[in-house]
Amino acid sequence: MKESSGLQPQNIEKLRRNHIDLLKLCSQLEAIADGLPARIDERLCVNVSGTLVSSLERAQALEELILFPLLGQKPGGSNRAVSIEHLVAEHRHDRLAAVEVVHALQTLAAGGCEISPDGTGYMLRGFFECVRRHVAAEQTGLAMLVDEGRRPAVNKIK
Q1: How far does CA 87 lie from the centroid of its chain?
Q2: Structural domains of the chain, with CATH
Q3: In angstroms, rounded to a whole number, what is the distance separating the alpha carbons of residues 126 and 87?
Q4: CB 145 within 8 A of CB 67
Q5: 37 preceded by cis ω (within 30°)?
Q6: Which of 60, 80, 57 is nearest to 138 (CA)?
Q7: Which of 1, 39, 72, 73, CA to CA, is 20 to 30 A from 80?
Q8: What is the reported pTM?
Q9: How far apart are alpha carbons 69 and 144 in whole angstroms?
């Protein structure tokens, strides 16, 4: 069975590495949120704020380049198209939320806090939990696509 170009091992590995990077950032955001309001690690805030948006955009671009076309090839007609449009919209919302998180982290690193520490913690937790769920869903979808690509072709009896 010919392997779809999107399911090439190097593409799968790139997606997995991006997911690992995003999950690491989520853990760092959780550590920041856990430290509020008393312990603010300014260096960690700076490091995360410097990589969050670019890491998210890189992962999303790869997902849209590799996974979305593969999902679009599956049966399901307009439902598939609507689902893909929904995922693209989620990516856009996640990027906008990431920009807000970066701003909050930069403010924390500078010794300020525009919203209450509880509000900031709530924002960080909402963001990283959303990203974790998104990554889990993408990993599940990727596993299904990989499994489908490994199945032998079935001869249909007429």
Answers
A1: 11
A2: 5-149 (1.20.1420)
A3: 18
A4: yes
A5: yes
A6: 60
A7: 1
A8: 0.84
A9: 14
